[in-house]
């Protein structure tokens, strides 16, 4: 079968790898002139690393494995510490933080160089009786038996095939960076919650730490003033957050406004199918986006093996919809940066959680991960 893939991000490359391994002919159409390697590090839950392993990616070479997830209050009280390793065995894989660039490079290294055409993005696409088509910015027309829209949050393929509104801004933005570790984070990823928002940090391999803060997306200051904004909002939080801020320079801070798509009922039409952010952009809260995209890839590849091509969109959408909706709801509701919902992030309401047995909390978290995965 001939397949066109729009987008050479994490999900487009992972799909291409799986399709080539299954013996299909694949052409990737990527808008950027070269692989996009920036954007800090991402957290891969066991279902994400499992999907990558199934494609032959050596996950041990991606960033850093972590074993514990700690939750703290802004005043420095440790509320929870989850043992992630006990989830690893039943879910069949590990939890890691990896720089995006490392993951993209690892995926691309398993593909023939000519598989991806850079610098010629899709401007229009569609499906007809004979298959699917895409037209690129250079004016070239491409045809295939199947078109996979993996072209991210502003997906042209989604727009052409499903129409409807684009992903909407949620009013929150992540201010983040990947910088030399200011202190040893060990194998623990830490999330601190307070009424102003949150701060997270984790090792991402090679002596680097991924850190982030969430703020209102309406804050519009020149890059040189970003660190002052962070200090005013988060500088009063307990150690080590002031030390983290002291180790940063304004140029380290990148800003990513959050957006969210309504998860559609059908993830495509005819011979065009959507996956990753093109199907279900969601805020990065709780780190579900790429993990969901990798689940999409696994399920789509399974459907292509077992279902008639004209039925793939329906069967694949039905198998993925519920988990993506749950992940999107968790990502959209787990954090507040203003208003009465921030009360739930205050010390007096968080601290009683410390009384819960670690085993129970870990089991609850594993249940949440299972609810957002097609693998159980
Ligand atoms: C701050 C932040 C932190 C995050 N942290 C995590 C995390 O810890 N864990 C997690 O699982 N997820 C995380 N996410 C979400 C994750 O980054 C996305 O879900 C994931 O990158 C989606 O992958 P994708 O391949 O679908 O899309 P993208 O990564 O957006 O890739 C799309 C590709 O398509 C290309 N493209 C765009 N338009 C066109 C076109 N018209 N034609 C051809 N090509 C095109 C782009 O250049 C790009 O290469 C985070 C997101 C943000 C913003």
Task: Note down, in words, how this protein is organized.
- The chain is of the alpha/beta class.
- The chain has a domain at 2-39 and 101-168 and 261-333: FAD/NAD(P)-binding domain (3-Layer(bba) Sandwich).
- Helices cover 32% and strands 27% of the residues.
- The chain is built from twelve helices and 19 strands.
- The chain has helices at 10-21, 46-54, 85-91, 100-109, 156-162, 226-234, 241-246, 277-280, 289-306, 312-333, 347-350, 358-371, and strands at residues 2-6, 25-29, 41-44, 64-65, 68-73, 78-83, 96-99, 116-117, 122-128, 131-136, 141-144, 146-149, 168-180, 188-194, 197-203, 208-216, 254-260, 268-269, 272-274.
- The strands form four sheets. Strands 6-5-14-15-16-13-17 form a seven-stranded mixed beta sheet. Strands 8-2-1-12-19-18 form a six-stranded mixed beta sheet, sandwiched between helices. A three-stranded antiparallel beta sheet has the order 3-7-4.
- A hairpin with a 4-residue loop joins strand 10 and strand 11 (141-144).
- Helix 1 (10-21) packs parallel to helix 9 and helix 9 runs antiparallel to helix 10 (312-333).
- The mean pLDDT is 96.
- The site of flavin-adenine dinucleotide has 33 residues, from helix 1, strand 3, strand 13, helix 8 and helix 9.
């Amino acid at each position: 079968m001939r397949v066109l893939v729009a987008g050479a991000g994490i999900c487009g490359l992972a799909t291409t790898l799986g399709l080539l391994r299954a013996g299909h002919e694949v052409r990737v159409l990527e808008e950027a002139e070269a692989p996009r390697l920036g954007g800090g590090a991402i957290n891969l839950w066991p279902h994400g690393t499992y999907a990558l392993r199934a494609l032959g990616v050596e996950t041990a070479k991606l960033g850093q494995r972590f074993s514990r997830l700690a939750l703290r209050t802004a005043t420095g009280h440790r509320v929870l510490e989850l043992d992630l390793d006990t989830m690893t065995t039943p879910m069949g894989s590990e939890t890691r933080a990896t720089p995006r660039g490392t993951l993209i490079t690892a995926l691309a290294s398993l593909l023939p160089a000519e598989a991806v055409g850079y610098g010629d993005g899709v401007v229009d696409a569609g499906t007809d009786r004979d298959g699917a088509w895409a037209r690129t910015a250079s004016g070239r027309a491409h045809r295939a038996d199947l078109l996979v829209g993996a072209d991210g949050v502003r997906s042209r393929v989604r727009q052409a095939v499903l129409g409807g509104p684009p992903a909407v801004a949620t009013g929150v933005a992540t201010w983040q960076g990947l910088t030399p570790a200011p202190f040893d984070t060990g194998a623990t990823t830490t999330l601190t919650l307070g009424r102003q928002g949150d701060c997270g940090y984790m090792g991402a391999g090679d002596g680097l730490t991924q850190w982030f803060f969430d703020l209102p997306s309406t804050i519009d200051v020149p890059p040189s003033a970003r660190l002052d904004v962070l200090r005013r909002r988060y500088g009063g939080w307990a150690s080590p957050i002031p030390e983290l801020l002291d180790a940063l320079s304004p140029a380290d801070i990148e800003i990513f406004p959050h957006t969210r798509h309504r998860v559609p009922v059908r993830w495509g039409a005819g011979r065009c199918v959507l996956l990753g952010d093109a199907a279900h952009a969601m805020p990065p809260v709780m780190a579900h986006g790429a993990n969901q995209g990798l689940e999409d890839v696994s399920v789509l590849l399974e459907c292509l093996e077992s279902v008639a091509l004209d039925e793939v969109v329906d069967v694949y959408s039905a198998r993925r919809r519920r988990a993506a909706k749950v992940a999107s709801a968790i990502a959209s509701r787990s954090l507040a940066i203003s208003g009465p919902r921030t009360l739930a992030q205050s010390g007096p309401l968080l601290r009683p959680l410390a009384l819960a047995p670690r085993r129970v909390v870990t089991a609850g978290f594993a249940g949440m991960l299972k609810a957002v995965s097609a693998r159980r």
